[in-house]
Structure formats: C-alpha cells, structure tokens
Design brief:
Number of strands: 4
Mean pLDDT: 86
Structural class: mainly alpha
Number of helices: 15
Strand order of the largest sheet: 1-4
Shape: globular
Distance between the termini: 16 Å
Radius of gyration: 21 Å
Helix content: over 70%
Strand content: under 5%
C-alpha cells in the first residue's frame, strides 16, 4: 500500500537517502506544494493573504530557533534580536547603500550569523538557565543599541527606516500576492535546508550534544565548534526572516523585534514540537493565526463583550492563551502538535488492525 513501508524496496543509495520514501508521503507533499503555489493565493482575499505571509515569515524564524533549541539543545530567549540585526542590515543596505533586494536579504542573514556567533560564545562555558540569561541580555542590548545609535536606528528615539519594496529584475513586489510567492519560495528553501541539515553529520552532532554533551565530546564531537555553528545557522535563519519582515512592512522599527516576539517564537517551537521540522510548521501556523482568528471572532461579539478595544484585549489575551497552551503541552504532550500528527499517521498506517 502507498501509505506503508512494507513492500517498498530501495535499490539505490538515492532511494535510500530520499526525504520521503513512502509513496503517499511524496504524493502528499507534491499536492500541498501545488495547492500553496497554484491555488491558495488565488482564492484568498487580501486579509487572509496577509495571514499567510505572516505565517511564512514566522516559519523561517521558527525553523532557525528549533534548530538551536530542538536539535542542538541550546536555550535562547533572544531570537528576535537576531531578526533585528538581519532586518536593520537589510534596511541599511537597501535604503542607504542602494543595494539590490537579494543582497540585503543574504547580507541580513550573514550579519545576523556573525552576531549569533558572538552571542553563542557563552554557550561554550554555560548552559541551561545561565545561557537563557545570556541570550536575554543580548536581546536587551540589541534593543538599546538600535534605539540610541542613530546611524543604525535613524534619527530620534524608536525611529524607522523606510525600506523600498523588493525587486526581482524589473518586477516590483508590492502586492500581497507577489509578496506571498516570494515568502513561500524562501520558506520552502529554508524548510528543505533544515530537513537535510538534520540528516547530515552536522545534524547528528547537534542531536548528540542535545542528548548528552559530555558523551558526545568523549566520542569525538567538537562541542565548542558545533554549539557555535548551531547559533550561527539559527541566527542566519532569523536574519533572513528579519530582512523579509522589513521588506514586507516597508520599514524597519525596533517595535517589531521586542522580547515579546522572542517568546512567541519559543511558543511556536514548543507547541509545534521540539526537534521537528513539521512540528515547526504546525506551531508557526497555529501561534500566528490564533490571535488573528480570535480577534475576528471577538469582533462579532463587540456589543456583548464589555471591552472597548478588541485589538488591545486580544493582544493581552494571547499571552495568557499561549502560556496556558505551553503548560498544557509540556504536561500532556511534550512533543507537541507533531506527536499528535504522528499518532494519527500511525493509526492509519496499521488500519484496520489495532497494532
């Protein structure tokens, strides 16, 4: 059957190393790609295209954080700081140096990777709670620097840098649908890259450090090198996401990269499932869409709920919801939404037999 491994024989190394060995998995992935690329952008209105674009940008950032926290086992609560470095780098390169969009995009990722290398240096000596405090310090340092160094943040406290729209050749990407295709392409590349990293020697070294760093070092894994690589790759993802964000909004402002956003990304990887690429997709979509859908629902009860500003109410309510969900998943299903999906797959894999 196309949904089971039984009867599928691999006769080449390419077949054995394929990302998806079961026929149903390949058909499903191809179907979803066709749906997201050829159908979804043409059936959604502008508001829901905005939702889809936000999910794509957050997915790129969450993938980087899951590589660091889920695969390498290093705690970070300052992921938004790396996004800020990438976003402001892209904004400066594009608006002040008149560089092309793709140069700013890659440049934002590279500069964020170097910043991640500096922030990751404490991981060589500390871990756990102490490493979390070190990354939290990086978050506050980044916010202060952007606000007080005028060459970076612009003139005035919390000033913005106006960023021209992204251009690919002569095509200006200034509509939601055009931005959707750009974000979708980058999200696919980021996802496939992380899937392949997880299967390489690099990914196996990350998992070994996460499970038991002393044992990994005894077996010959250079934990200093691989910890710093984890921070660099994770920060590169965040930098690219930050660059995408400023190109999407058309301006760079530090309010988009506060500590609250770092907590949101942690919620994405915990709710979706640590160490899971598919779980990251679930978590990014869930955490991004939930407050937007909740606000839409509460707008219908505007006259019933004794709240004057629904938007502000939802902005504060989402923290309580996310906090409760994180506690629920940590207690009931620590592996997140990805584990729930695996349970569903396992059921149909052996159906109609019970086991």
């Amino acid at each position: 059957m196309i949904n089971r491994e039984c009867g599928i024989f691999k006769t080449t190394y390419q077949a054995d190393m394929a990302l998806y060995t079961v026929p149903l998995a390949r058909i499903t992935v191809a179907g979803f790609l066709a749906f997201f690329a050829l159908i979804l952008p043409f059936i959604l209105d502008v508001k829901h295209l905005v939702w889809a674009n936000l999910v794509g940008i957050n997915l790129v950032a969450a993938l980087g954080l899951n590589l660091l926290v889920g695969f390498a086992g290093q705690i970070s609560v300052g992921h938004a700081a790396f996004m800020a470095v990438g976003g402001y780098t892209a904004a400066i390169m594009t608006s002040r140096a008149d560089m092309p969009f793709w140069v700013g995009l890659v440049g934002g990722g590279v500069f964020a990777a170097f910043y991640g290398l500096l922030v990751g240096l404490p991981s060589v000596r500390v871990k756990g709670f102490y490493l979390a405090i070190a990354t939290l310090a990086a978050q506050f340092i980044t916010e202060w620097t952007v606000n007080h160094v005028r060459w970076i943040g612009g003139k005035g406290f919390q000033a913005s840098i106006i960023v021209p729209p992204a251009k690919l050749g002569g095509l200006v990407l200034d509509t939601e649908r055009e931005k959707y295709f750009l974000i979708l392409a980058i999200a696919i590349v980021a996802t496939v890259a992380l899937l392949n990293i997880a299967r390489t020697r690099l990914g196996r070294a990350f998992v070994a450090i996460r499970d038991r760093d002393i044992a990994a070092e005894i077996m010959g894994v250079d934990i200093v090198r691989y910890k710093l690589l984890a921070f660099m790759i994770s920060s590169f993802y965040a930098g690219v996401a930050g660059a995408l964000w400023v190109y999407y909004l058309g301006n760079a402002n530090i309010e988009s990269f506060r500590i609250v956003e770092s907590i949101n990304f942690l919620a994405m990887v915990i709710i979706g499932g640590l160490g899971s690429v598919l779980g990251t997709i679930f978590g990014a979509a869930f955490v991004t869409i939930l407050p937007l859908a909740l606000e839409d629902i509460l707008q219908n009860f505007k006259g019933v709920i004794p709240v004057s500003d629904i938007h502000s109410f939802v902005a504060h309510l989402r923290f309580a919801v996310f906090g409760g969900l994180i506690m629920l998943f940590l207690m009931v299903e620590p592996e997140g939404l990805n584990r729930l999906w695996r349970n569903i797959k396992d059921y149909f894999r052996v159906w109609p037999f019970p086991y």
